[in-house]
Amino acid sequence: MIDLTIRANGLESAVKRARENNIIIPTFAQLRNPAEKVPDKIKKALHNVNTDDVNPLNLFRITWKNQPRRDGGEYGGVNYIEIPKELTAVKARIFVMVGKWFPTGCHKVGASYGCLVPRLVTGQFDPYENWAVWPSTGNYCRGGAFNSKLLGCKSIAILPEEMSQERFDWLQSVADEVIATPGCESDVYEIFAKVKEIRATRADAFIFNQFEEMGNVLWHFHATGPALEELYDQVRTENSRLFGAFFTSGSGGSLSAGDYLKEKFPHVKVAVGEALQCPTILNNGFGGHRIEGIGDKHIPFVHNVKNTDMAVAIDDNNSQNLLRLFNSEVGHD
């Protein structure tokens, strides 16, 4: 479902831009298993590059296996934490993969990479002529703008005006254009009204819609899924049984990691989470909420609902209270 038609003129432009900016494009195999697949000379060069630097070498850090540091780290195992039973109140061991050590501090650089790179290497996206448009409620357009910068492409970030000021401040320093649309986390309709306007008025704009881009699925199936499997292999015992995997749905892309797990562990249950205040999957509902990055009043095209076993509503009051706890002196104690 990913169009790999070669367009010679665009490919020539992409190669030219890569030569100008010393860009090397990592393969998915390298990002899945960087310790073994990434050349030693690139690993050595990464020692002098911080994770958030606008440097094309940081393309090789679009992986779940970065060392947990932002100053010149290389690779290690999958980063994760185990949630203590004092918080979960259940006997099952619950592990969470950590995306903090990606460039931008979020795994959305992976999803956006999976969308942009196939267009570049086929010549469908010309870095001299086209603009990459990244519509999102935040982290996807951050990842897209960052990758565009590393790959020498012009970018437009579109997100709701009520998203955090930190996101806007950061995007102003990376994206070529930043457009704020009316509304909050759930107001994706307004974002795509702006996308429709851009599509009608700017022939050079290339819309990377994460809700329908199969590159989003490609990344999570081939990178996030294997990382989850590796995490389970690290922590399992002789008596362990992988019961389930839980993903919150923004674009629905990470749920394809659940598709990967079901191929490896057919008995595993895949659950999708959304805000209680916007229970679209659970109850055909809608509404505003305060959990940034999920719950956009629709079920994305890339969400494989046939592999989803259950939907879970998360009260945004609970997430906000936990956030306050962990960022207070009492919570630190």
**Name of the CATH first level of the largest domain:** Alpha Beta
Overall mean pLDDT stands at 94
Strand arrangement in the largest pleated sheet: 5-4-3-6
Number of helices: 14
Description:
The structure is a single chain. The chain has 333 residues and is α/β, with parallel strands linked by helices. It has helices at 8-21, 28-32, 34-37, 40-46, 85-88, 108-121, 139-150, 165-174, 188-201, 214-235, 255-264, 280-283, 316-326, 329-332, and strands at residues 80-83, 94-97, 131-135, 154-160, 177-181, 205-207, 244-248, 269-275, 310-314. The chain contains 14 helices and nine strands. The longest helix is centred in the C-terminal third of the chain and has 22 residues, at 214-235. A four-stranded parallel β-sheet has the order 5-4-3-6, with helices on both faces.
Write the layout of secondary structure elements.
Layout: H1 8-21, H2 28-32, H3 34-37, H4 40-46, E1 80-83, H5 85-88, E2 94-97, H6 108-121, E3 131-135, H7 139-150, E4 154-160, H8 165-174, E5 177-181, H9 188-201, E6 205-207, H10 214-235, E7 244-248, H11 255-264, E8 269-275, H12 280-283, E9 310-314, H13 316-326, H14 329-332
Parallel strand pairs: 3-4, 3-6, 4-5, 7-8, 8-9
Antiparallel strand pairs: 1-2
Tag the structure with descriptive keywords.
three-stranded parallel beta sheet, alpha/beta, Rossmann fold, 333 residues, 2 domains
Quick description:
The protein is α/β, with parallel strands linked by helices.
